[in-house]
Amino acid sequence: MTEPGPRAYAALLERTAALADLRGIGALLWWDQGTMMPVAGAQSRAHQFATLERIAHAQLTDPEMGRLLDAADPWAATLDPDARERRMVAEIRRDVEKAVRVPAELAAEIAHAAALGEHAWTEARAANDFGRFRDALARQIELRHRYAACFPDAAHPYDVLLDDFEPGLTVAELRPLFEALRNGLVPIVAGAVRGGDGDGAGPLDGQFPADAQRAFVTAMLEAHGFDSAAWRLDPTIHPFAQGIGVGDTRLTTHYDESTLDMALYSCLHEFGHGLYEAGIDPEIARTPLGGTTSLGVHESQSRLWENLVGRSRPFCEWIAPRLASAFPEALGGLTPERLYVDGTRVRPSLIRIQADESTYNLHVVLRTDLEMRLFSGTLTVDELPDAWDAGMHELLGVEVPDAVRGVLQDIHWGAGLIGYFPTYSIGNLMSAQIWEALNRDVPDVEERISRGDSEALRHWLRERVHRHGRTFPPRELLRRVTGEELSVEPFLRYLRGKLADAGHLGA
Ligand code: ZN
To answer: Are 110 and 416 in contact, with CB atoms under 8 Å apart?
Structure first.
């Protein structure tokens, strides 16, 4: 006869496996919405998301879950603190306790509004008219307030939103961190030689049919572990990556036929996300530990591939001759040096996802400040476009010509993803810390990259970061990987070093 603790644990795993399947189904619907779904399907998709959410919420908040957890807890407490079973029970408790605080109707309303808000954003963008988005945004903020109110013991209501994306992150920690980031970046950007406005002079600009781009980026990713038996790459407007389950990792990209820049770097970015999802130990698949630990860690992986690998001198040495031979007319004369120097330039610009490495985080610092003010009520939805434009002028010295190149450029707020933006910069900070640790362990990693050999890099990332899934909370994972707490210095150090190496620092 099995003891009650292990028996309850087995029952919990059975229930949470079904929940993991529901999440996979939701992920598939999300992928479909971003790639295949006819635009007129938005209303029914919103209902489908809400129904999935209602089912998942009901299963998670079933009183039987609480009884099973109470039966499993005393047994789990006798195990080693690092034991997988003990971590599993703690993670289920965290999910259940969060879910029981939120009424089922509110959870479904949030899911429904996310799909509709995204749709409103798409229409407002097509019309270049913030006015068509304002009601959807106001609705998202109202819903986020109702959500945060379910957790009255949080030190700050915005902490509740942060915790969904970056467990454990608080306003108290975020404010000084972002202030240090901003204060570190502003002089770096001011001291760098400006790389022009970036209109049409890039080394990857020209005429590139979508099919040819697709063939090139697919071959590039295949050289680094993209396996068409387990991965897909599809076109979309706003690139994203989505793990559906073991053996099913979906990347998306956008083919702008006037430049290779977008597809090349967004593919490397989404590939980093995909490797994280695909690298989770299959033994914890369909369990509460079988996901990714935070969006910050997720983004550390994508930015590592996009920037620390993709925009490095060694990677340019590998990719430039391949670009030149794949596109002899447009890129026949491309040198690794030109690609590296140009890819490192400081070019204050309007669009976050196209921003250079030096200015990127200032976009995030601004969004974080704006959404914290929107959420706290010190900024109204109607004041947002002007506040956005003023912030872009102050931080980056650029003038915003219209809503599409300003406040309407990102999908997040429409989808109710408030508290999400900070994780982009958290990821950039982590990527530099992880890169330093990687270089200590694999000192010849850059030489290997110059030969197109990322095997050791991928192995290290899988062993140290990916395979653990949610076994460790994000900050514990960072500590285990780097021996450090989250900080801005490694990132600033990386940036200064790179700008100096590429010759972008003033005399
Ligand atoms: Zn990303």
So the answer is: yes
pLDDT per position as a tens digit, 174-208? 999 999 999 999 999 999 987 655 455 689 999 99
In a domain, 370, yes or no: no
Instruction: Determine contact, residues 96/61, Cβ cutoff 8 Å.
Output: yes
Task: Identify the domain containing residue 51 by its residue range.
Answer: 4-153
pTM equals 0.95
**Is residue 431 one of the residues assigned to a domain?**
no
Query: What gap in Å lies between CA 119 and CA 125, rounded to an integer?
Result: 10
Give the count of domains, the chain: 1
| Axis crossing angle, helix 474-482 with helix 295-303, rounded to the nearest 10 | 40
Q: Give the per-residue pLDDT at 104.
A: 85
Q: How far apart are CA 243 and CA 245, in angstroms?
A: 6
Say how far apart CA 150 and CA 140 lie, in whole Å.
16
Query: Is 399 tagged catalytic?
Result: no
Query: Could you give the strand order of the β-sheet that contains 241-245, starting from the edge strand earlier in sequence?
Result: 231-235, 248-253, 241-245
Distance in Å, CA 182 to ligand 1 centroid: 21
Distance 303 CA to ligand 1 centre (A): 7
- Whether residue 47 is contained in a domain is answered as yes
Among the listed residues 91, 166, 270, 306, the single catalytic one is 270
Distance between Cα 495 and ligand 1 center (Å): 19
Cα 273 to ligand 1 centre (Å): 7
Per-residue pLDDT of 347-406, as tens digits, reads 999 999 889 999 999 999 999 999 999 999 999 999 999 999 999 999 999 999 999 999
In a domain, 265, yes or no: no
Residue 373 is encoded by which pair of tokens? Answer: 């003010």
